[in-house]
Design a protein that fits this description.
Blueprint lengths: L16 H17 L10 H25 L4 H30 L1 H15 L3 H7 L17 H21 L5 H23 L7 H5 L1 H17 L11 H21 L5 H22 L5 H5 L3 H8 L1 H16 L6 H27 L2 H10 L5 H34 L9 H23 L18 H7 L2 E5 L1 H4 L2 H7 L4 E4 L8 H11 L6 E5 L9 H9 L5 E4 L9 H14 L3 E4 L1 H5 L15 H19 L2
């Protein structure tokens, strides 16, 4: 994200504490991507950034409208491009070269996202692209975080046009405020309405229309807030109290609320936006305690480099530690590399270009020097720029050739085999479901039928279990049916957790299923939301529910899903934990290259954990 301009705007004095708030926001995001336990909701730092950007950009636009009754769109957009693009075009070649050498899978995903990153439509690319599940396996693209830059860039294109459309009216300020507030509430409401926990939340999370409210809340504050650090109508001490409480609220939410919690989609991001606006409102008074606290040098240093830190940190984390939870010294390496590269970018790329270095150099080269000193200066400038242009050309051509000719790779070793397994498993499941419809319900099923006098194999053969799973369970299908020949394994690639209750209903209502228990093998593709209590309620109290923990080290929800699964199994009657996460620790040989999908030995081990848990329950 762009974090706005650092220079003083015409309308108001620069708010020094803004840099500190930027620093806190980017640190939350970095901590989240490093999987630090104290920042499980650190992605709300992006929401804070949006509010800051909306506030600062709107102050610039409003100042220009007040002074000229219009907006020089060409000048405004040029400044935004000059602020955004140079750092991006510096980072991308470095990422291309590094990933091509170190991690070919990451390189492949980066190449797919390049154009969307450069031309600022990455958020919609992520929503609408048809890249297959198999190509998305493993660590995400190193450019995934560009979705927020895309939203800001789109806001910078659209919002000035909205303001310009009403700039000529007499009561324009009232119209600005009314339109901005209405759009903000509409955007927030759209996020609430479109969010469906049973589906992939990408449309809601990445959509410009569903995330613009944070930028608009910042814009709203810029229009109604007091300027110039004046005392205003509200006493300074009260504004300090409100600002400090709001800041504490942001930190608490980042630490306590999971980044994929449904609460965030049902008003949580709106709450963070309002809290961030209150913090900024308190800092408008330059003498406020919170403004002075957030203006300390370490935070200011991080804050002015926060754009570069945001750009560099995620690719570095993926290249160095694979995006997985790692050791403290690997975390330290990630942080040091991020700090060094972002500082270099800020000093040698962002700052000179933002301050007009390109224009000055062109002016010097086009000048007609008269004095020896001027001639020498022009000569040095020409020589320096020839070197820069040649170096840039070599790097650019090298990156293009790399993208064009370096072989691609995927995180799964045999995609075609998995696709074939999916087709075969679906056919087998359909056949077994059809057989169920032709059977009469066993009077002894529908509960926990004891089988004490049977051998282990007889118990397993007699059981009628329903496994509801995703592509991880798909890898286990053949071994599952070897062990549970009278059971069902309903698996689907990319299945979300909230689909489980609907699938259960379909078996009960359409296939007359009245079996012995259910195995919940979901949670690899997204958060649990309310899937477990909903499924448990539909099953009733008598039928046992087995829940399998997940091993998805590249996904943010691994820890929170496993924590919720363990807690639910511990506190819910007739519900049993199958701890695949713990059982698979230290067994890298069980997994495909994405560290998630299973090779044959891993699939057998997964099946054995199910077998062990099931026998433990039905032998009692």
């Amino acid at each position: 994200m762009t974090m706005g301009d650092n220079k003083t705007v015409e309308r108001n004095n620069y708010i020094s504490g803004i840099d500190g708030l930027r620093a806190v926001a980017v640190l939350l995001v970095v901590a989240y991507h490093l999987k630090l336990p104290a920042a499980k909701g650190g992605l709300i730092g992006v929401t804070v950034f949006f509010v800051i950007s909306g506030f600062l950009i709107t102050r610039i636009l409003m100042s220009e409208i007040e002074n000229t009754n219009t907006i020089n769109l060409k000048n405004f957009w040029t400044r935004r491009i000059r602020r955004l693009l140079p750092a991006v075009l510096t980072m991308l070649p470095a990422l291309i070269f590094a990933s091509a050498v170190i991690n070919r899978v990451l390189f492949t995903k980066t190449c797919q996202d390049l154009l969307s990153a450069v031309f600022c439509y990455n958020n919609w690319w992520q929503i609408f692209n048809q890249v297959s599940y198999f190509e998305n396996a493993g660590a995400p693209s190193a450019l995934t975080h560009f979705w927020s830059l895309a939203i800001e860039a789109q806001f910078y294109v659209i919002y000035p046009l909205v303001l310009l459309a009403v700039a000529g009216f007499k009561n324009r300020k009232r119209m600005f405020v009314g339109i901005t507030f209405t759009l903000a509430i509409g955007s927030l409401g759209l996020m609430w309405l479109l969010f469906d926990p049973a589906k992939d939340p990408s449309r809601v999370y990445y959509g410009t229309d569903t995330r613009a409210f944070s930028l608009l809340f910042g814009s709203f504050l810029a229009m109604i807030g007091e300027g110039g650090g004046g005392e205003g109508k509200i006493p300074s001490f009260l504004r300090d109290i409100v600002g400090a409480a709001a800041f504490a609220g942001i930190i608490y939410m980042a630490a306590a609320i999971d980044g994929y919690s449904s609460f965030l989609y049902k008003g949580g991001h709106g709450l963070v936006s309002v809290l961030a606006a209150f913090v900024i409102y308190a800092m408008i008074n330059e003498n406020s305690i919170i403004n002075k606290s957030l203006s300390c040098y370490p935070l200011k240093w991080i804050g002015v480099r926060s754009y570069g830190i945001y750009l560099w940190h995620y690719p570095i984390i993926l290249l160095v530690s694979g995006g997985k939870k790692t050791t403290w010294w690997m975390i330290l390496v990630d942080i040091l590399l991020t700090g060094i590269l972002s500082a270099l970018s800020y000093h040698f790329i962002e700052t000179p270009i933002r301050r007009g270095a390109i224009g000055r150099n062109i002016k010097i080269m086009k000048s007609k020097p008269e004095t020896p000193w001027e001639k020498k200066k022009r000569k040095r400038t020409i020589q320096r720029n020839i070197k820069v242009i040649c170096g840039t050309a070599v790097i650019g051509v090298g990156a293009i050739l790399c993208v064009a000719f370096v072989p691609r790779d995927t995180a799964l070793s045999d995609i075609n085999a998995m696709k074939k397994r999916a087709e075969d498993a679906n056919e087998l499941t359909s056949r077994k479901a059809s057989e169920l419809r032709d059977k009469n319900a066993d009077s002894e099923t529908g509960g926990l039928k004891r089988r004490k006098n049977l051998s282990d194999e007889e118990i397993l053969a007699d059981l009628n279990l329903l496994l509801i799973g995703d592509s991880i369970a798909l890898d286990v299908t053949d071994y599952y049916y070897e062990t549970f020949p009278n059971s069902i394994s309903d698996t689907e690639i990319g299945r979300q957790t909230m689909e489980s209750a609907e699938i259960y209903d379909s078996y009960v209502q359409e296939n007359n299923w009245d079996g012995d228990g259910v195995i919940f093998a979901l949670g690899s593709n997204g958060p649990l939301y309310d899937a477990l209590p909903l499924l448990r309620e539909k099953m009733g109290p008598d039928r046992p529910l087995f829940i399998i923990t997940v091993k998805v080290p590249n996904n943010e929800w691994e820890a929170s899903n496993n924590e919720e699964i363990s807690k639910f199994a511990e506190t819910t009657d007739n519900t049993y934990l199958i701890d695949w996460y713990q059982a698979s620790e230290g067994h890298e040989e069980w997994f495909d290259e994405d560290d998630t999908h299973l090779l044959p030995e891993g699939a057998k081990a997964y099946r054995d954990k199910i077998r062990e848990a099931v026998l433990d329950v039905f032998q009692r």
